[in-house]
Amino acid sequence: MKHYYAARAAEYDKVYAKPERQADLRRIEQWLPSVLEGRSVLEVACGTGYWTQFFAPHCPRVVAVDSASETIQVAKSRVPPEKVEFVVGDAYNLPPQRAPLSAGFAGFWWSHIPHARVGKFLRSFHAALEPGAPVVLLDNRFVPGSSTPITEQDAEGNTYQTRLLADGTSHRVLKNFPSKLELLAAVSPFATALRYHEWEYYWALEYATTSP
Fold it and tell me: Considering the domain boundaries, does residue 161 fall inside one?
């Protein structure tokens, strides 16, 4: 996954140019800052900083983590350096913070987590946050004709897409599309006050962390 997104860094944002998704994107771009405003935010899998640019201006501090330095270089061009600390790191073993942060955000990362590693990710993520911190998970819904087709499913129920990059290389990419009930069941042991949002092409789950 890391190698795929490193190779895709220069063309990643093309996914946000799909005409049919523009109305949803505008709604989410307006909604997301309202949830995170005034908070110190830990962003996991920040990628090229597409979403960082919308909420960072409203937050006193943002720590944005991604495993690929190539995507972080793109992200750094989007936000003032004094607003965001970019860190190359592992989502399952997040870099230690000098103090817990007061909110969390993970955009388009949940779909890349194998089912067997969901608990490990959430424990690592929440350990870096204050108890009761608001968290937003944001990701894709599967929409035929817009989403890349699923080409494979493994024994644990994880699904995969075959993606082609501009350089002609082909990549097998894990991409899960949970239903609302599946998502709530996976997160509820680690969270409270769950609130599910759904648009035509995207979903978001808003919740509060529980004490360790």
Answer: no
